Amino acid sequence: NAGVMQNPRHLVRRRGQEARLRCSPMKGHSHVYWYRQLPEEGLKFMVYLQKENIIDESGMPKERFSAEFPKEGPSILRIQQVVRGDSAAYFCASSPLGAPIYEQYFGPGTRLTVT
Amino acid sequence: DAKTTQPPSMDCAEGRAANLPCNHSTISGNEYVYWYRQIHSQGPQYIIHGLKNNETNEMASLIITEDRKSSTLILPHATLRDTAVYYCIVRGLSGNTPLVFGKGTRLSVIA
């Protein structure tokens, strides 16, 4: 059973471009979480999605950021008109429905660099 | 959620036990203590969790004080591969909820 997959692993964007980060959950997992990690900081929760539904987006910046988890395919975190402050590592995690909290498995992350 | 306090960094000699402390004085009765670690450039990895009894698994041991206001993660024989940032998190058991990470403790295992 493959783990959580994220791609690309590294992404470079110029200011003003769009960044699309993908997360493929583990097989059988219906819940996806996105976290952002700024340099020398801990992970900060951004958004929690179930298939076709956003459950909690309390950690998402109000502008330029959006997330989806369609019925088919990976979850996508989209950042429009990127700025230098968006440079960070973005991690996703997945879990099955009803699983205890420690059954949240993390992917290897996407490192976004905005130049 | 209860707030946790950890030292920012610690060193440990290879082969020795690494004891990582965590204070969580505002923990409530139904909250568990979870430990994760993040090796450089990787996603966090679950290590162990406990409610009030001491716990041990193949990775580590968790000692929780009787009043539950603090705990210690013990890596019995630290290796260079244990160099990582270790996060102590206090949370309920039920899943499908985000984790809340602090800054953790950066453990450096030295040869």
The global form of chain B is: globular
Structural class of chain B: mainly beta
Number of strands of chain A: 11
Largest sheet of chain B: 5 strands, mixed
Largest interface: A-B, 30 and 26 residues
- Please, what is the oligomeric state? heterodimer
Write structural notes for this entry.
- With 115 residues, chain A is mainly β.
- In chain A, 0% of the residues lie in helices and 48% in strands.
- Chain A is built from no helices and 11 strands.
- In chain A, strands 2, 4, 5, 6, 9, 10 and 11 form a 7-stranded mixed β-sheet that branches. Chain A has a 4-stranded antiparallel β-sheet with strand order 1-3-8-7, with no helix packed on it.
- Chain A starts with a strand and ends with a strand.
- The model of chain A has no long low-confidence stretch (mean pLDDT 94).
- Helices cover 0% and strands 45% of the residues of chain B.
- Chain B starts with 8 loop residues before the first strand and ends with a strand.
- The mean pLDDT of chain B is 93.
- The A-B interface holds A 4, 31, 33, 35, 40-45, 48, 55-56, 59, 91, 93, 95, 97-109 and B 32, 34, 38, 41-46, 49, 85, 87, 91-104.
